Structures are given as structure tokens and as C-alpha cells.
Amino acid sequence: MMGNKISPNSLDSNRLWTYNGRTMAERTSPAQTDTRRRSRRLDIRTTPQERELIDRAVAASGTDLTEFIVTNACVAAQRVLADRDHLELDSTALAAWESLNARPARDLPGLRRFMQRTSPFTE
């Protein structure tokens, strides 16, 4: 749709439109309609080179800056937290893990006495 300018007065009222910060683009699918409302600000500082790189990537992805930053920051956060959310073991490590977990629990007399005490939080 390069070269065709879209006038806000000529928009069909039956279509969904979004403004991405630079141009108006038609939303072709209801699935693309974002129902989340973003209410928290995230301010970041970049070097001019970092900003140019980010702007180029935003333009190449066909999205807006907010969507690009939030999406990619969430993906990075999920990668960082992945090792805290689940554990992947090869067959040897899994066998060792199962062996450790199959052992009977040790008797810890001090812990047993502590757990049998009355809670200071009960009346």
C-alpha cells in the first residue's frame, strides 16, 4: 500500500484501524485486536547507536516501538526465568535425581521438636 495515503475522513467505519506512530494501517483480523490495557510506564536510556538499531528492527518487524520492546523484553525475561520454572535433565541426571528422591527421609530430632511446638501465632 506504498504511495496510497489514507485519509482519516475516508475510513470505512466497519474496519478496525490502528495508528502505529508513523502511519495508519488496517487491522485485518479480530485476533490482532489487543484487549490488554497497558498502564505502567517503562523508561529506558539508550545510546544513539542502540536506538538506531532498535528503530530499524521495529521498522523491519512491522510493529510499533511499544509492542516491539514489550514483546522482546518479555521473551528475554522468560528465557532468564526458564531455569527457575522447570528442570530439564538427561537420562543419567534423571536417574540420579530419582535415586536421591527415592531415599527415605532422615530423622532430624531438632526439626521434629521444633515442628511439635505450639505456634506463637495461635491464640
Quickly list its features.
123 residues; 45% helix; elongated; 4 helices
Provide a descriptive summary of the structure in words.
- With 123 residues, the protein is mainly alpha-helical.
- Helix content is 45%, strand content 7%.
- It is built from 4 helices and 2 strands; from the N terminus they run ββαααα.
- The chain has helices spanning 48-61, 65-85, 91-102, 109-116, and strands spanning 16-19, 24-27.
- Strands 1-2 form a two-stranded antiparallel sheet.
- It is elongated and about 65 Å long.
Fold blueprint:
Elements (H helix, E strand, L loop, with lengths): L15 E4 L4 E4 L20 H14 L3 H21 L5 H12 L6 H8 L7
Antiparallel strand pairs: 1-2
Question: How do you describe this structure in short?
Answer:
The protein contains four helices and two strands; from the N terminus they run E-E-H-H-H-H.
Structural class: mainly alpha
How many beta-strand elements? 2
Name the average pLDDT.
77
- Please outline the major beta sheet: 2 strands, antiparallel
Percent of residues in helical segments? 40-55%
Tell me the β content.
Answer: 5-15%
Q: Give the topology string: H per helix, E per strand.
A: EEHHHH
Low-confidence stretches: 1-33
